[in-house]
Amino acid sequence: MIRSDHDVLIIGGGVAGLALALELAEHRPVTLLRPAQDDIGASRWAQGGIAAVLAPHDTTEDHVQDTLIAGDGLCDEAAVRFTVENGRAAIDWLVALGVPFTPDVTPDAPYPFHLTREGGHGARRIIHAADATGLALIDTLIEHARRHPAIELVNDLQAIELLRDHNGNCRGALCLDTADRPHMLAARDTILATGGASGLYRHTTSPAPACGEGMAMAAALGATLKNLEFQQFHPTCLYDPSGNPFLISEAVRGEGGILRDAQGRRFMPDYDTRAELAPRDIVARAIHAEMLRAGSPHVLLDVTHLEPAAVREHFPTIHAHCLTRGLDITRQPIPVVPAAHYSCGGIATDHCGASDVAHLYAIGEVAYTGLHGANRMASNSLLECLVYARGAAQALHAPLDENHAEPLTPEFATTPASQPGVADDEIAKALAALRRIMSDSVGIVRSDVGLAAGSEALRRLHIESAPLWLHNAPTLALARLRHALQLAELLIAAAHARRESRGLHFNRDCPDHAEGQAKPSVSHLTLRR
To answer: Which residues form the FAD-dependent oxidoreductase 2 FAD-binding domain (predicted)?
Structure first.
């Protein structure tokens, strides 16, 4: 096994990981694991923008209250205020780096950059780079990271297990290279920025969604996970069974897009007075209900009543992409369907991104900060990435201690290869089965019977799959499957334990809020071989 030593190890190269690396590299050397698929991860596909109090007419208190309302009673108000209050500084930092945000060229514009509005927000406060904000962020941040002498970008290693010492502290990660050879990267401090768990579902808004690998690795080390049952389904993913997933931004509705059923009837006013601008959980359930009522595989998002030039100006990426699918959105409504999009739960952290395992931090979608509660409000996710990355950098300016114990031999490294290598299609088949179970039993609308059936199906799948990793040398695909199974079982257990409906979690057998349930759920991993 190849061994190397590092000061700060960041696992994940989306917006959160890159922002932390850039902020921290002025003080400590950083090793950033950024495998190739990070180029098509969730950050790059973010379209809408970043929510922040930027315009003179907007206020911190308004943004805080909008977020608390969207979170349906489960937000940590201190986390919400911390995030919102630090939003302007994070945006100013991005502007200074040269992120090409869309300017506001109207006469007497209250802010130099165009601000749009999205569901749940009471004001225009979403700064964006046309409709490809994530791409603009990644391109800018990665260019700065490549030029920084204190940042080492590593694109041929992926973490499969966190290392611990005899005190239980995190000491880096076991990684595999592209040939599945093990590398032990010991580190003083380790930060997970690995994304969420949307890849546990059949339909997602990203072509390369994470399956909760970072959450599972942290839980195996003893870290606390919270609110796993709150998986957000974005209301509007382009419906095209033959093509790759493609998100239709919340901003399309913010700029006047109307949701219609298969017969062309507008239906959102039947469900909420805010209509298309209701929070995502409400819109996703409304679409789900309309699809069931009509027996239709999708609904329609209509912008044909808007000025075509404005549609092309505000949504050039969406317009161009839909054209490649044979759809001119200025003339035809867009077929859309809800899809797994964002994990509101994750590794429990403080305002500095620290978990309850010493020297292990988590930022971005992999973390639970308390900001999102039972439902994430649109464009608060990139804000969270930036604010908590900068907060973690402040906390990590200097090592907490100079003396640290050696990492123990990682579990995966001791797996005997008693059988010939497992075929990739066997692993893919098991992962596909997991995604079917999760989509059928713990999707947008849940029930006790469905959750129980899903739990039993996952148990059987785990037993059937265990020989794959017990008797074969570790591979990236095997590690991904094992992590996905572990996290899926935790998620479905958390959903079954919440005896109410709140935010993104809706159970037909307990459809109302329950007294005493407005608190985060807590999950710990009991390792099953």
So the answer is: 7-382
Q: Which of 34, 280, 480, 498 is catalytic?
A: 280
Four-residue CA torsion sign, 393, 394, 396, 398: positive
Separation of CA 293 from chain center: 30
User: What's the CA gap between 372 and 351, in Å, rounded?
Assistant: 14
Angle made by CA atoms 206, 212, 216, in degrees to the nearest 5:
170
Fold of 233-338: Flavocytochrome C3; Chain A, domain 1 (3.90.700)
Q: Distance between CA atoms of 241 and 237, rounded to whole angstroms?
A: 11
Q: Cα-flanking dihedrals φ and ψ of residue 251, to 5°?
A: -65, -25
Q: Report phi then psi at 525, rounded to 5.
A: -90, 125
- Answer for the pair 318, 330: CB distance below 8 angstroms, yes or no: no
pTM beyond 0.90: yes
Looking at domain 415-516, its CATH class is mainly alpha
**Is 280 known to be catalytic?**
yes
Name the class of domain 2-230+344-395.
alpha beta
Given this model, what pLDDT does residue 241 score? 84
Residue with tokens 């008797």: 471
